[in-house]
Amino acid sequence: MPDYSLLIFDWDGTLVDSIGRIVESMRVAAGRSGLPWRSDEAIKGIIGLGLPEAIQTLYPEVDDAAALSVFRRDYGEHYLLLEAEPSPLFPGVMDALEHFRHCGFRLAVATGKSRRGLDRVLAGQGWQRFFDITRAADESASKPDPRMLHEILAHCRVDPRRALMVGDSPFDLEMARRAGMDSVAVAYGAQPLSVLREFGPSLEIEHFNELRAWLDGRVTSPQGEVSGYVG
């Protein structure tokens, strides 16, 4: 089993408990545009994509630039209103990220959020310190295109076999597979494990601390020396 040196995380639904706000904001924006109601399951099914791709997957009838721009504006305005109090990290995430840094892991984010949205929350909460690099869909390519992962790997100078993608959507796991990376399926986010198992994750977790415990079986020092494997 591989010795990982780089951990790459999805944002919404993996590190941050924001799925409900995304669903609500998508519904509000659709309503303002006179578009039909979509179920929770349908909206959760596009979480992980870049916003333009998500909108056009849910509403293919939004097929011109002006209508797409209005939808994106309405979505963003409502999401920012909800984010007056920022979405919290999931339980265990803060301590685990601190622990991973202490153990010598490189950490990164690959998200469907916009660069502006990601920077806002990172700066507002002081979370930039955790990550060596972050990549957003609007500056790269939407998942499941592996371009974000290729860019992160190049920046960190890490072979894909030593990197691990952690995410809660099929787009995260398919992106990792296309990049030649192992993945971890998160069960508490947008999609159930029954959907994520199709993509062959190396680990399934119901709580973020399970990732920490799994990796602790591999690392014994801040230099990342390997002592053995679990799981």
From TrEMBL:
<dbReference type="InterPro" id="IPR023214">
    <property type="entry name" value="HAD_sf"/>
</dbReference>
<dbReference type="InterPro" id="IPR023198">
    <property type="entry name" value="PGP-like_dom2"/>
</dbReference>
<dbReference type="GO" id="GO:0008967">
    <property type="term" value="F:phosphoglycolate phosphatase activity"/>
</dbReference>
<dbReference type="GO" id="GO:0005829">
    <property type="term" value="C:cytosol"/>
</dbReference>
<dbReference type="InterPro" id="IPR050155">
    <property type="entry name" value="HAD-like_hydrolase_sf"/>
</dbReference>
<dbReference type="InterPro" id="IPR006549">
    <property type="entry name" value="HAD-SF_hydro_IIIA"/>
</dbReference>
<dbReference type="GO" id="GO:0006281">
    <property type="term" value="P:DNA repair"/>
</dbReference>
<dbReference type="InterPro" id="IPR006439">
    <property type="entry name" value="HAD-SF_hydro_IA"/>
</dbReference>
<dbReference type="InterPro" id="IPR041492">
    <property type="entry name" value="HAD_2"/>
</dbReference>
<dbReference type="Pfam" id="PF13419">
    <property type="entry name" value="HAD_2"/>
</dbReference>
<keyword id="KW-0479">Metal-binding</keyword>
<dbReference type="InterPro" id="IPR036412">
    <property type="entry name" value="HAD-like_sf"/>
</dbReference>
<dbReference type="GO" id="GO:0046872">
    <property type="term" value="F:metal ion binding"/>
</dbReference>
<protein>
    <submittedName>
        <fullName>Phosphoglycolate phosphatase</fullName>
    </submittedName>
</protein>
